[in-house]
């Protein structure tokens, strides 16, 4: 085994951060090569996810100047998860281990050393987990941690405070390739693979430049995608709620009959209106949740490609 390491970084409009990111990764990778921890055939692969700026031009420039860098240019924007998958599955035939990370320099690249050490000790999947959220605002901390708690409560088992900073062995990537769903949520799929796993804790830094690609609205949408892609628990909750409302309706029927036979037949208008609006709202909510699942079934049955690679730049030798 040559211990060839590939880094995969999805990029969407990241021209502001790529020069700094590439320089820091160059230093890190060359340092690991000199220490004989990884092979000199190791590479850094940027995945251009349909960027509208100069991201792809920069990636090509990096590749032309230094064979350490390579790039994958997708034919269009397919979203972070599919772009990441494209990178992972494309490079797995060239690498012994692959580390995925964001291009914005918030993931601590020094954690790469410990990830590689754990791989060399026989670990197939190493998760990068935030040790704390001291640098986050109160709102960001509450919403982010709430995201993981809700996901796990709803049945989408994830690693707490872990995003997509992880190391995967070739064997683990071969396992990942067997998951063919279109509605992709890697944070929930990777733990399903099995194999020996471990954790590396790190402090997440500030974004070097540019804007966050995951504001609150997108994070909520991401949570819904993850829950409905990995768990049927919301459907079961609707069933439980429907059964509860049925029991309540039986109680209301008994109450109404008692009121009728005791001569008090005038029921309050407020009670009636609240009941109508509450039941109507629950019905619409239930239809919405069921619709999410039907929509996903519809997309899965089409079997559309999750991504199409337009160009792949990689000096393998």
Task: Give a nutshell description of this structure.
With 317 residues, the protein is of the alpha/beta class. It has 10 helices and 8 strands.
Helix amount, in percent?
40-55%
Numbering strands along the chain, what is their spatial order in the largest sheet? Answer: 7-5-6-4-1-2-3-8
Largest sheet: number of strands, sense, barrel closure: 8 strands, mixed
Mean pLDDT: 81
Number of domains: 2
What is the tally of helical segments? 10
Give the CA-CA distance, first to last residue: 16 Å
User: Roughly how many Å is the radius of gyration?
Assistant: 25 Å
H/E series, N to C?
EHEHEHEHEHEHHEHHHE
CATH superfamily of the largest domain: Spore Coat Polysaccharide Biosynthesis Protein SpsA, Chain A
Any guess at the CATH architecture of the largest domain?
Alpha-Beta Complex
Shape by Cα distribution: elongated
Q: What does this protein structure show overall?
A:
With 317 residues, the chain is of the alpha/beta class. The chain folds into 2 domains: 5-215 and 305-313, Spore Coat Polysaccharide Biosynthesis Protein SpsA, Chain A; 233-302. Helix content is 50%, strand content 15%. The chain has helices at 18-34, 55-65, 80-91, 111-120, 138-153, 170-176, 186-193, 216-230, 233-261, 269-302, and strands at residues 5-11, 43-48, 69-74, 97-100, 125-130, 162-169, 197-202, 309-313. The protein has an 8-stranded mixed sheet, with helices on both faces. α5 (138-153) packs parallel to α8 (216-230). The longest helix is centred in the C-terminal third of the chain and has 34 residues, at 269-302. The radius of gyration is 25 Å and the shape is elongated. The model has no long low-confidence stretch (mean pLDDT 81).
